Amino acid sequence: MDRGIFVSRIEAESTTLAEALDRYEIEISSYKRSADRERSTITAWRESSLGQRMLASIRGKDIAQAVRDLEARGLAPNSIRIRLALLSHLFNAARTAWGMESLTNPVDLVKGQRPKLPGGRDRRLVGDEQPRLLAAARAYDAGPHAGVGIADIITWAIETAMRRGEIAAMRWDHLDRKARGLLIPETKTGTPRRVPLSTAALGVLDVLDVLPRRIDGRVWGIGHSIYNVRPDSISQAFEKVCKAAGVSRA
Q1: Which of 133, 192, 199, 127 lies closest to 160, judged by CA?
Q2: How far apart are CA 192 and CA 196, in angstroms?
Q3: Most CB atoms within 10 A, among 1, 14, 147, 153?
Q4: What CA–CA distance (Å, rounded) separates 222 from 207?
Q5: Burial class of residue 13 (count of CB atoms within 10 Å of its CB; 0-12, 13-18, 19+)
Q6: What is the per-residue pLDDT across 33-84, written as a single tens digit (0 to 9) for each?
Q7: Which H or E element spans position 181?
Q8: What tens digit of pLDDT does each residue of 112-160 get?
């Protein structure tokens, strides 16, 4: 203390993980584009067995046990890694921005014990799978789910290789038919990009052009604002269409 190098542990020893998560949600997470998605991760850690532990008491072995518990509950490797990433960011923020310099980031101590991610997907439609899939999608759209337009969405995804979130967020004012391109202003990497549009993709737009447009400017969803196509609704519809068509996603 006389030399001015003493680092107090009082705050780290008197702040629970749940309290730190509350602060993280307000000061950090709320400013991210992924704030809505992170809310569930924050809640999960807050309600976990570590939630009422003081930050200074959480060690690497506790994180390793948390990982084993999540694996035993059947969480996917990527879901576990997302949870660990948020927790690691919280500890780093506590050390650098909240004045808890004495803290050690326990997530860094278990890097070798994190679940391994599966290899990237390389599934491609083969044989008559594409026409079967589209036929099942058109049958799905003919039923009570007409607002989804899953047949057109599947065709669009095949032609553009866009992510489901990017497709759901498409807007008419981001389309440039003359240049045969679509601007995606917000991407997973944070860098805007332009997607070239094939003749088949432009054909999908021709079909949509004869339908009433949404008042919010979104491309997908018939009936203006009465049906909102979301990434999860695309996934749910696609799962049902694959099952009906006898096409495996694996």
Answers
A1: 199
A2: 13
A3: 153
A4: 12
A5: middle
A6: 778 889 999 999 999 999 999 999 999 999 999 999 999 998 888 889 999 9
A7: strand 181-184
A8: 777 776 665 667 888 899 999 999 999 988 876 555 588 999 999 999 9
Please answer whether residues 249 and 235 qualify as being in contact, where contact means their C-beta atoms are separated by less than 8 angstroms: no
Is residue 34 within 8 A of residue 70, CB to CB? The reply is no
Look up residue 96 and give its two tokens. 């650098």
Cα gap 131→137, rounded to integer Å: 10
Q: What is d(CA 60, CA 19) in angstroms, rounded to the nearest whole number? A: 20
Rounded-to-integer distance, Cα 157 and Cα 198, Å: 11
Answer whether CATH 1.10.443.10 is correct for domain 129-245: yes
User: Which stretches within 97-245 are classed as H helix?
Assistant: 129-142, 150-160, 164-168, 199-209, 231-245
The SS3 assignment for 124 reads: coil
Residue whose tokens read 């994190």: 114
User: Does CATH number 1.10.150.130 belong to domain 10-113?
Assistant: yes
pTM, two decimal places:
0.58
Q: Report the alpha-carbon angle 85-89-95, nearest 5.
A: 150
- The burial of 171, by beta-carbon neighbours within 10 Å (0-12 exposed, 13-18 middle, 19 or more buried), is given as middle
